[in-house]
Amino acid sequence: MTIGLAILATFVAGFALIAKRLSSTILTAPIIFIGLGIALSTSGLLPPEKIEGGLHLVAEAALILLLFLDAAQVDLGALRRDHVWSSRMLAVGLPLTIVIGTLAAWPFLPGWPLCALALVASILAPTDAALGQAVVSNDQVPVNSRRTLIVESGLNDGLALPAVLLFASLAAQEIDRENIDWLLLGAKQLGLGPLVGAAAGYVGGAALIWAQRHDLTSEAFEGIGAVALAASAYFVAVQIGGNGFIAAFVAGLFFGNVLKGRCKFVYEFTESEGQILTWGAFFLLGAVLVPEALKHLTPEVLGLILVSLFVVRPTAIWLSLLGTRASVTTRLFFGWFGPRGLATALFALLVVKDIGPELAEPVLHIAVNAVWISALLHGLTAAFGAKMYAARIASIGDCAELEAVERSAKLLPGSTLSKNSHGRQG
C-alpha cells in the first residue's frame, strides 16, 4: 500500500506541473484520476478495502465544500435580472430533467417503484462544468454561453438535492413501512436544513464584513473561516435533525450574497486547495467504486445512462429555453454539455445507506457508471465541440451570443469570466 501511495503522491505532483495545458485537451482531470484509481486498485497497489473508509470521508467533505463554494459564487440578484438562460435551465430545465428522466428510466428498470425511478433521475440530473473544462475555459466560446454553463452547474446540484432526499425517503418508506416514518424524517431534514444554512450564512457574512472593516482579519484567515462556516452549518443542521448538505448549500448562498463580491478567497480556494479535494474524490471513485460498478454495467444500465446523456437532458434544456433568444445551436450545445460529475456519485453515496440493499447497490452502480461514462464522452468532445460551437455562432452572427455588454451587476464577481464582458440574455 505504501508503494501505491507514493505513486499517487508523485503522480499528483507531476500532474500539477502540466494541469493548465491538459485542461484544454481531451485528457481532463476527472478522466485521468478515475483511470489512475482503477489502475492502482486493480493492480493491488492500493487495495479497495484499505481505502474505502477514506472514500466516505473525502466524499462528504467534498460535497459540503462543493455545495457551499458553488453557491457562494452566485449573485442571486444578477441571476434573476440579467441571466435568463441560466434561470430557465435551473427553474424549468432541472425539474423537466427529473420528470423526463423518470419516464425514460421505466423501460430500463422494470418492476422498480416510481419513487425509485425518480430517485435515479434526480441523482443523474446535476451537472459538473469541471468535466467540460475545455468548454468553459475556451475564450472563443461566447462569454454568455460559458457563464450560463458555469452558473447552471454551480447551482443545480444544490437544487437537485432536495429532490434526491425526498425520493430517497419515499423509496425507503416503500421498503420499510413499519418502524420509521420516512416522510416525516424527510420533511424535517428539508425544513430545518435551510433554516440553519440561512442563519449561518447571513451571520457569518455579516461578521466577516465587520471584521474586515475593523481590520481584524486578512484573506489568508478568511478562507479558513469560510471553510469552517460550511462545516459549522453542516454539523449544526445534523445535530438538530436537519440535512447538513442542504444547510451548507443555503449557507453558501447567503454568505456570498451578504458579502457581494468581498470573498475573493472563496474563488482562490476553489481554484487551488479545492482542486486537491476534487482530484482525490475522483481518484477514490476510480479506486473503490468503478471496478465493482463495471461488473454491473448491463445493457439496461448502459442504455439508461446513454438515454440520460443523449435524450433526457437535451430535451429538457431545449424545452426550457423556448421563448428565449437562444439559437438552435446554443440549445443543442447546452443540452449536450451537461456532464455528470461528483455530485451524481456523492448523492448516490449519500442515500444508499437509507434505501435498503435491494435498491442501494443498483442505484450506486448506475450513478458511478454514469460518472465515468460522462467523464469519458464529455472529455473527448469538449475541446472539439467548443471549437465547432464558437465557429458556428460566429458564422451565423447570433447577436444574443455575441453581445457582451459591460454591466455593473456581476453574476460571478470573483471569476475570470466576470472580469471580461457581461451581457443580458433573453
Structure write-up:
The chain is 75% helix and 0% strand. It has 18 helices and no strands. It has helices spanning 2-22, 29-42, 48-72, 76-82, 84-105, 114-123, 133-136, 143-175, 182-213, 219-239, 244-259, 264-271, 273-295, 299-320, 328-336, 342-351, 357-396, 399-402. The longest helix has 40 residues, at 357-396.
What is the CATH third-level topology name?
A: Na+/H+ antiporter like fold
Count, helices: 18
- Give start-end ranges of low-pLDDT stretches: 402-425
Helical proportion, percent range: over 70%
Radius of gyration from CA coordinates = 21 Å
- The name of the CATH architecture is Up-down Bundle
Q: What's the number of extended β-strand segments?
A: 0
Number of domains: 1
Order of helices and strands: HHHHHHHHHHHHHHHHHH
Distance between the termini: 55 Å
Given helix and strand content, the structural type is: mainly alpha
- Name the CATH class: Mainly Alpha
Shape, principal axes of CA atoms: globular
* Biggest beta sheet summary: none
Strand content: under 5%
Summed over residues and divided by their number, the pLDDT gives a mean of 82
